[in-house]
Amino acid sequence: MRKLVPFVVDVVLVVVFCLLGRRSHDEAVLGAGLLRTFWPFGTGLVLGWVIAVAVASGREGASAAKRFDGRTLWPTAVIIWLSTLIGGMLLRAVSGQGVVFSFFLVAASFLGLFLVGWRVVAQAVRTR
């Protein structure tokens, strides 16, 4: 159960990212609108977790998946952040949702702050 906590934190932070974005554009924050905004990034997030576990397993052998720590910065946080960002943008584009460069920059910044940032704080607290 403890191994799921980092994944749950990531999901909550991606939902918060979507809520903030919808609220900043005066769009409905809850319901179908939130789901429409969340699903591309949520899918990218899940894909990032799968890739991060696979990378750890590839580097360290099959038993690494059992020891996988979703709190690590490199390469886990970077893989999850980039997959959430790029996967989310690609899925938004193919589903007819807007993707403009300024939104890409904002999403990259916020998702980086959220998905990498909490791990930086957690690592700093662990090393004290």
From TrEMBL:
Keyword check for Membrane: yes
InterPro entries: DUF3054
Keyword annotations of the record: Membrane, Transmembrane, Transmembrane helix
Pfam families noted in UniProt: DUF3054
Keyword DNA damage: no
Positions of transmembrane segments: 7-25, 37-56, 77-94, 100-121
Coiled coil: none
Name recorded for this polypeptide: DUF3054 family protein
Organism (species): Nocardia terrae
